[in-house]
Structure formats: structure tokens, C-alpha cells
Amino acid sequence: MTYADWLLVSGERGNTATRLDERRPDGAAWSEGNDARPLVHGAVYFAELLAAIRAMHAGDLFLFTDWRGDPDERLGGPGTEIGAVLERAVHRGVIVKGLLWRSHLDSFRFSEEENRHLGEEIEEAGGECLLDMRVRPGGSHHQKMVVLRHPGRPELDVAYVGGIDLCHSRNDDSAHRGDHQALPLAAAYGPYPPWHDVQLALRGPVVGDVEAVFRERWEDPSPLSRSPLTRLRELLHREDTIADRLPPQAPDPAPCGTHTVQLLRTYPNRLLRGYPFAPDGERSIARGYLKALRRARTLIYLEDQYLWSPRVVACFARALATQPQLRLIAVIPSVPDQDGRLALPMNLIGRITALDALRRVGGDRVAVYGLENHAGTPVYVHAKVCVIDDVWASIGSDNVNLRSWTHDSELSCAVIDRRTDPRPPHDPAGLGDGARAFARELRLELMHEHLDIAAAAPDTAGQRAEEELCDPVAAFRAFEEAAAALDAWHEGGRRGPRPPGRLRGYVPPELPWPQRVVATPLHHALVDPDGRPLRLRRRNAF
């Protein structure tokens, strides 16, 4: 196996304006020698981030981008509100720079006020946080990254990329009792919605790549908004709209691990004037998936917030059609995040049509599940994870829908481990690639939680179950059996001991045809828009 079998080479990114693929003398479009660690759950990520910020000294650099930021969200108990933690860092002399999506109106339940408040707290302390609306109409900046650089102490340099925002509802753990600083979701999730999410901690040369992504956006000379009303409000509120110059970028940290990491992104084809670093947009997330899926042979494991868009799901359907032994497991929210006569059909129509397309091709090789905690409350799946054949793994901000693949700004990491996993099957895909340690361990960690399999000592039933899950067919069957047992327990009135596991079979509700007729065009126009140039839309190409 070569990395070029799975990852995009420079010419395949489709964006010659970015500096990402020109950072290395050998022209490699990825970095080797990294240490990548999945941080499953917001509580794990927040605890590590809090410790890392507290260890920063004067002259260190803290960079972040986010979709939403709540200044009062606690990273680890009273006194650890993210706004206050960053204020104290600024007072210690840490250079803090942030880019937050300006957002649409709060009446649409987005986050304009919260993002402004976090930005104001940082600015008042002496840092700099800009509200960025340089997006396509109806779009958002959805990237969630944090970079910590330490001049003179590069061994401490770290970046975080994934699906976890610095905001309410994210601070949950494996028990999934929810974050008591909660955002309102559909009533089924209760007052403190259980939240499942994943972030990736990165050390090594890839930290420089993540910083380069931040710098491209920070150094964009375009106005933060094209809206005359927004620009007038910026003047009236004396908002900071001009990005100060960043210190020169330090050399990349030294290699420290076995992981090859490629940064994949989405930027839309922005109307009138594009991004200087992506004039025609960038769709390397879509292209990365398309290339990896062409090598899929045994198992695609997905965790995704949406799994919408027939035009996106078509690439998964093609893989299923081409490879008769290929299976797909998807873990998604059981219930859409919003209630309401209009919101519910708009949230469901894309998923219903996408799942129909997958099941037409894959039949019983396609299995879709929701999650619940041990109290029976649905768990909101916000993770964006894909593992293909225990070789290629991705963790990022992007969902499997057209919005994430074409319209919003997104950032994802594709990871391939140099180490092979010693447990059989050693080469499940039969292509000579071998099962790679990072991808398999990520899949097993997530499956263990959903099946209620605790870490076990050798020669115990738990250890044997772990070894069985290495086999893609056995893993597929284990999910199927666990969900069937829990579904039957609920259908039987919840009598007797609750079966182990948290998986529930997902069956999309039926939508009457009048709702379908109304919801379909609204879904495509408002919920899942297309940000590609017209020439690519016509060919459904990325």
C-alpha cells in the first residue's frame, strides 16, 4: 500500500491556490510522523483543552475557529468558563486570535449573540476575535479547530480538529446524561440532551498544516461581511473588523508518531469574489471520500449528524453496488434536532430519500442505528466519523450532506497509521493494505461504547468480544443483535433486565405526500443547499 492509494495527491485537491500542498519540499499533500488521538466526548476534550490553555505562557499563540462559542460554557466546573479561561490567558501574555461565524439572526435559533459576547470578552481582555460572515448566502463557517503553539517549547504544540464546538450542550461524557448548560433540542431529548461527539488531538508536523488553514482565513483581505446593515452595525458598535498581523509561523513540530494525516476542506464557490486561497472553492472532503470509497471492500462505519442528500449518498451506493461483500453501518440521531410542522419534514425528507437509495442497492448490508442512554433517552449524535476497512479514518466538522461537501466551510482529517494491527483479520479488504491500528482502534472504541463492552483483561469474555469485533462481518452482526434485543425489550413493555447496549434500529417515519411535496424544495433550498460552480452541479461532480 502507498498513501497515494487512499489519500489525495496534490493535483487531486482541485485547488491550486492553497498553500497546504506546497508546505513540504517533497510536495506531499499530507504530513507523516504525527500522533493523532481521538477524544470521544466533549468532557474528555474540554478537560484536555483546559489543561493545555492553563499551561500556556507569555508569547504562546492560541488560534481558534468555531461555528458557535458560548463564553459561559464550562470546560471543567465553576471558574472554567471558556471566556474567562481565555481572558486569563490573554492577561498572562498569550496571543489569542479567533474567528467565529457571525451567524444569521438569533430568531432563527443560531448563535449571533453568543458569538458576539465571546468575541467581546476576548477583545476586552486584549485578544482579538473577529465575527466572520465571508460565506455563501445561507452558508456558515462550520470549521472547529484550535491550535496551540509554544515558541521555544515545540514539544507542547497541539491542534484539535473535529465536531465539538466551544459552546453549550457539548460537555457530555460516556454516561450521556447531558450537559447541564444545554441548548434546546426536540422534546424527546429532554432538558439536558445527551450528546455524542468526537474531536481529534494532533501533535507533530500536522500542527503546522492546521495553523496554515487558520492563517489563510485570517489573512483574507475581504470585508468580514458584504451586508450593508451588518457593516453599519460594525461601525456603530465599533467592532473589530481588521485582522491584526500574526507573528510569523514557527517551523512545524518534529515528527512524534506513526500517523499520516491529510487535511481535507470544503469552501464554497463564493459568488462575485471568491476566497484568495480558494477562488473556485474547495471540495477536497468530497474528493477524499470518493477516492477512499473506491477501495472499500468489507465495512464502512459511519457516525453522522445528518446522512442526508441523495447526491452525496450516491457515492456510498456506488461502492455498495460495486462490492457485493461490502457492508455499511451508520449511527445517526434517532430524532431530528427540531420539532415543528415545517422543521420536522424538512429535517427528514433528505434522510428518507438518502436511506431509500442506500437500501435499494445494499439491502440488508445497510444497517442504520440511533443511540439511547441507559435511561432510555435518545442520544443526539453530533459526531462526524468514518472508518473504511480499518485502514482510512476521518474525523472532522463535516456531515454527510451536500451542505458540508459543497456549501459551508469545513475541516476534516484523514488518518492512516503506519502500524498494522496485530489482531486478525490482518487484511480484511484483501488488497494488501492491512488493518491499520488507528482506524481499527477508533472503530472498536466507538463500538465498545455502543455495545456496553468495557475494557477487559486477557482471556475474559470482554477480551474475546473485542477480538470478534475486529472481524467486519462479526461486528455488523453484533450491532444487529444488540439493537434487536433492545428494541424487543422496549416493545415488550421494558419488562425484565435491560439488555446491554445503547443501539436502537432506525426506521424513518412516513411522511404523507403533501408534506413531501412541500418539504423537498425547501430542504434543498434552505437546509441542504449546493455551493458548487454551475458546471459541476450539471454533472453532479465535486
Features of the shown structure:
single chain; 542 residues; alpha+beta; 18-stranded mixed β-sheet
Quick overview of this protein structure:
The chain has helices spanning 3-6, 42-54, 82-91, 112-125, 206-218, 228-236, 284-293, 310-322, 343-362, 402-407, 437-451, 461-469, 472-491, 513-527, 534-539; strands spanning 31-40, 61-66, 95-101, 128-132, 145-149, 158-162, 195-196, 198-203, 259-267, 282-283, 299-303, 327-331, 366-372, 378-381, 385-388, 392-396, 410-417, 503-505. By secondary structure, the chain is an alpha+beta fold.
Morphology: globular
Question: What structural class should be given to the helix and strand makeup?
Answer: alpha+beta
Mean pLDDT: 92
Main β-sheet, in a few words?
Answer: 18 strands, mixed
Number of helices: 15
Determine the N-to-C terminus distance: 26 Å
What portion of residues belong to β-strands?
Answer: 15-25%
The Cα radius of gyration reads 22 Å
3D architecture notes:
With 542 residues, the chain is an alpha+beta fold. The protein contains 15 helices and 18 strands. The chain has helices at residues 3-6, 42-54, 82-91, 112-125, 206-218, 228-236, 284-293, 310-322, 343-362, 402-407, 437-451, 461-469, 472-491, 513-527, 534-539, and strands at 31-40, 61-66, 95-101, 128-132, 145-149, 158-162, 195-196, 198-203, 259-267, 282-283, 299-303, 327-331, 366-372, 378-381, 385-388, 392-396, 410-417, 503-505. Strand 2 (61-66), helix 3 (82-91) and strand 3 (95-101) form a beta-alpha-beta unit. Helix 3 packs parallel to helix 4 and helix 9 crosses helix 14 (513-527). The chain starts with a helix and ends with a helix.
